[in-house]
Structure formats: C-alpha cells, structure tokens
Amino acid sequence: EAGVAQSPRYKIIEKRQSVAFWCNPISGHATLYWYQQILGQGPKLLIQFQNNGVVDDSQLPKDRFSAERLKGVDSTLKIQPAKLEDSAVYLCASGWSSDSPLHFGNGTRLTVT
Amino acid sequence: AQSVTQLGSHVSVSEGALVLLRCNYSSSVPPYLFWYVQYPNQGLQLLLKYTSAATLVKGINGFEAEFKKSETSFHLTKPSAHMSDAAEYFCAVSDRQAGTALIFGKGTTLSVSS
Q1: pLDDT (tens digit, 0 to 9) for every residue of chain A, 113 residues total?
Q2: B107 touches chain A (CB under 8 A)
Q3: Are strands B108-113 and B103-104 parallel, antiparallel or unpaired?
Q4: Which residue of A51, A58, A89, B46 has the lowest C-beta tally within 10 Å?
C-alpha cells in the first residue's frame, strides 16, 4: 500500500510569513494526526482528526496554527504568522482507528529565519 | 495524564552486543505501548506494540519488548546489535479506552560501533 505522503519536504521562510503543509493519508484511514518534532525531542501532538472532525486540538496554538481535513481525506496545516520557535519537522500520521498503529509520513522540515 | 520517560538520551553499543533501551510509562489505566524507530530524514516506523495480548512482544528486525506492570516498564531489547540499527528510538503510550493519540518520549539515539 502507498504510504502517507507529505509535501513539501523542506521549507524555509522568514518570521511573520505564512506557510502551509499538505498531507495525503493512506487510503481508508479514518484517523489523521499532525505532530511537531523539534530537534532533539519526541513528536508532540498538534491535532487529531477522526474522518473530517477534530478529536483533539488542545495543544494546537490556535492564534497562529490552523488545520483542516476536508472530506475526511487530505489535510493541510497552516502557520500564520510563523515564529522562530516554529522551526521543526511537521509529521503527518494516519491510522485505521484511534487504537490502531500509526503510519507516518517523512515529514516537512520547516526552518524559520 | 499519561507520559513516558526514556532513560538515557544516547546509548552506544558495539556490533554484536546486547541492545537495551529503557522506557517507563505513567498511566492510570492499562495503556497501549509502542516502540517506533526513526532513521535520519525519515518518518517514524513501528517496531512493535503492546495491546495486552502477551507481555513479551516481538517486533521487526529482531527487536522485542517486555511489558512489566509492576515496574511500569516497557524496555526494548535486541540480543545482537547490527550497524543498521543505528537510529533514534521512541517509546509511546496511548489510552486504549479513550482512544487518544500517541504520546511520545524524548527518544534515545542508538549508536553502533564496529
């Protein structure tokens, strides 16, 4: 089966600019997650979707981050405006259900200068 | 709140030696437990998972982990390290009843020398 696809792989922007990341999960996977992985740390959950509904966005900085999953398939994560501390790898993951193992994409590495 | 603690941010072993990566969890309910591996510039790959069927879980690439409720531990082991095992390893926990997302530890970097 095809894996989780993410784009772009790398992005460099200046602070206060906006950026968007895209994720295409494995076909049929109902749950989709966005994680932020800062260098030297474990992934931190930003938002969890079940189909096109949000299950958990308690750790999403909603003043600057937004995410949507239209039609319960692809998802986009947006940052506006970006800060230096947003420099990280943004990982998308999907699963059949909330208690099934996650399949991760290769991530988008964001550098904010 | 659930959490995992990985003891040792960096572990170095010689090729052929035993690999032991430590993970302790904190959970008020029986959790699901996972080990993931991350190679440079790649996403995370599932090594193995514990979902209560058996306390000794075997995974891919010769790795295994044992769930010890009395010690709240889920340590990862491999009898003989290979150069290709050098990577970042993450322990993760989730609440099986609530269906919450995975919470990851900070990771342990495994180095293997010849």
Answers
A1: 679 999 999 999 999 999 999 999 999 999 999 999 999 889 999 999 998 899 999 999 999 999 999 888 999 999 999 999 999 999 999 998 877 788 999 999 999 99
A2: yes
A3: unpaired
A4: A58
CB A79, CB A61: distance < 8 Å? no
Please confirm whether the linkage preceding A8 is cis (ω < 30° from 0): yes
Interface with chain B: mutation pick from A24, A41, A102, highest number of B CBs within 10 Å = A102
Nearest-CA distance A79 → chain B (Å):
21
CA angle at B52 for the pair B47 and B57, rounded to the nearest 5°: 35
Distances (CA, A) of B104 to B76, B82, B112: 15, 25, 23
